[in-house]
Each structure stands twice: as structure tokens, then as C-alpha cells.
Amino acid sequence: MIPINLPKIGEEEVQAVVKVLRSGMLTSGLGAGPQVTEFEKNFADFAGAKHAVAVNTGTAALHSAVLAVGVKQGDEVILPSFTFVATAEAVVLAGAKPVFADIDPQTYNLSPSAVEKAVTKKTKAIMPVDLYGFSADMKPLKEIAAKRGLALVEDAAQAHGTTYSGKPAGAFADAACWSLYASKNMTTGEGGVTTTNNDQIAETLRMIRTHGEKAKYSSLMLGTNYRMSEIQAAIGNVQLQKLPSFVAKRRQNAQQLTKILEKNSKLVLPYESKDRLHSWYLYTAKLKDGTEEERNHIVEKLKKKGVGAEVYYINPVHQMPFYRENFGSAKLPETEKASKQVFSLPIHPGVTEEQARFIGETVLSLL
Ligand SMILES: Cc1ncc(COP(=O)(O)O)c(C=O)c1O
């Protein structure tokens, strides 16, 4: 089976981990040992941001960022439902209400006009997601946020290598949250990081990460333990150096798939523009006018033939039992349509040219 994603770990990562293990310093009480400090510097440079605050998951990055921009109990936060559930969890964990807005069917990302309609007096923040590694439309969202005095927290979990208007993902947000989970374009096993140009937000993120402390045993606010270990950061430092080559290989595989699949008019292929470069975290095609059953049938057949196709996301968050029961139903026609028609294909750096051809031709044979 060609898996949908696979971490690419080499001898360099192994050596970096062994070095940390031998050093005896596996983590740091106040949040940032030498490896974490280096990783934060490297990641901030990569993202073109003033600060990077490393944590132990992307979900922790989202939760702490939502808190750090001031989201509180009783607030509303506007976000897409067509995302991984962690985006919404961050809002609920902060005591706020997730308000789901519909997506643009071409990019699968939050529609700025839908966001505008969802703003109320209680809205505190907007959380766009760079779905599949393609940037949300940040300029109009930033305009709405500025006009209404809202915070903009970008879920860049899938966006290592994504650009918007020539800048790395996250550049237009108050805070951007990245995942370093094993499937992502770069990994630390589990891990996350938040980037920001705002000194106050960065300071709050650092406090939340370590029990609300600036100095030991003197909590200034409610915090938790979201620390990244030295072992994770050592892997991250190596992976970050390799990231450009990983994204280049993903791009090459994506281009090869597009060349094969564009021959069939039943598919809508992923959208990209010069102004918004894809990180190609996932190559997601849509079965135009297809039913959910037809799409599921293709995914099942692909799996039987050794292609690890998957559906991201088969259940939009607003339709999940917990969210429906607690936050009511929402009408999101584009989200619901996309969830029935999309499927993703493997293009990770471990996919060879021959495998990419096999994947493309297998899809064509099933249509
Ligand atoms: C869009 C999105 N948001 C948030 C997360 C959560 O990240 P993590 O799994 O590192 O907690 C992920 C990845 O899993 C994701 O894809």
C-alpha cells in the first residue's frame, strides 16, 4: 500500500536524537532548552516571523494561541467546519462558541463573504485554516478583522511551504499555528509551534506553555504544560533543513498527477495560483457531480489496488455529534458538498515517479 503520508526520517534525525539523549538534558523546566531555543529561531526565520513558540502538539499551539489573543468564555470565534476537529476544539477549550462559516468551493477554504455574514457583537476572532496546504484568502479576512476589531488566528497546521502574496503562511495573521505531527510536511513526531510578530502574544504563549510562569513557582496566569521536549526539537531542527526538498518533491509528484488526471473531465483538480503556492500537504481531487457513494467506491477500489487514498474530511465538524448537540446545526452547503465529493491521493516525498504514475493511471481506470 502506498500510504497517504509517511514521515521521512534519515540518519541525521537519528544522530540528533542520540546526541540529546547522551547530553542528559531531555527537556527544560521553563520551556526552552538549547534545542527548543534553536528550533524556535530557525522556525521564526523560516516563517518570516518575529517569534516562534514551540509546543508539544499543533492542538496545543491552537489552544494557547486562541487564549493568547484574548478569547474568553461567552465569545464567538468564526472558523470553517471543513477542517480537522482540532481547530474547533481550541475554541471550545477556551470556553468560547465555534461559529462555523462556509467555504469557497474552489479552494475549500473559509469564504470571506460567509465570515462577514457570521460576525456578531460577540465575535472575538476569526480562524481560517490553510486546508490541504493551500492558503486561506488572508487579505480580505484581515480587512474584516481590522474593520471589526477581531483577532486573526491562522491554522497553518498543514501549511509548511505554503505562500500567500509572496509571503509564508501566517504572515497576515496575529498568530499562526503549525502542527509537527508525523504526517505533516515536516515532523517532530508530535509537536507544534505558533508564530507571531506580536511581542505580547508571544509572551503570553510562553507563559501558557509553562503553567503561567515567567519565573519558577510563580504563576502569573492560568497555564498548562504544553512544552516541547529537547528530543522533539532536535528532530525539528534537522527536518526544517530538509523541508524545502520535501516540498519540492511533493510539488513534483503533484504536477505529475495533474498531468495524468487532467485528461478526465469528471475530476476537479486542486487549485493553485502564482500568488498562492501550495505546500502540497494533500493532493485533493473532487468528483464533479459525483455522489458520496461513487466517491467512496473509488476510494475503496484505490485501496484495494494499493493506493492509500483517504477522505479529508468525511464528517465536517458541525455534523459531528458533540458539536451538533452543543452548538446546534448550521447550514453549510458548500462544506457538505465538498465532504461528499473530495478524496486525497498520496504525493509525500517517499512516493516515486513510477508510483505517482501508477496512482494517476489507477484513478483514471476507475472513473
Ligand atoms: C488543520 C489541522 N489543524 C490542527 C491539527 C492538529 O495538530 P496536532 O495533530 O499536531 O495536534 C491538524 C493536524 O493534525 C490539522 O491538520
The count of β-strands is 12
Bound ligands: pyridoxal-5'-phosphate
Give the mean pLDDT.
Answer: 97
Strand order of the largest sheet: 1-9-8-5-4-2-3
Task: Describe the overall structure.
This protein is α/β, with parallel strands linked by helices and 367 residues long. The chain folds into 2 domains: 11-239, Aspartate Aminotransferase, domain 2 (3-Layer(aba) Sandwich); 243-366, Aspartate Aminotransferase, domain 1. It has helices at residues 11-23, 34-47, 58-68, 86-93, 112-118, 138-148, 199-209, 230-261, 292-304, 321-327, 333-341, 353-366, and strands spanning 51-55, 76-80, 97-101, 123-126, 151-155, 163-164, 167-168, 175-179, 192-196, 267-268, 283-287, 342-345. A 7-stranded mixed sheet has the order 1-9-8-5-4-2-3, with helices on both faces. Strands 10-11-12 form a 3-stranded antiparallel sheet. The mean pLDDT is 97. The structure holds pyridoxal-5'-phosphate. Pyridoxal-5'-phosphate is lined by residues 57-59, 62, 83-84, 86-87, 129, 155, 157-158, 179, 181, 192. Pyridoxal-5'-phosphate binds next to helix 3 and helix 4.
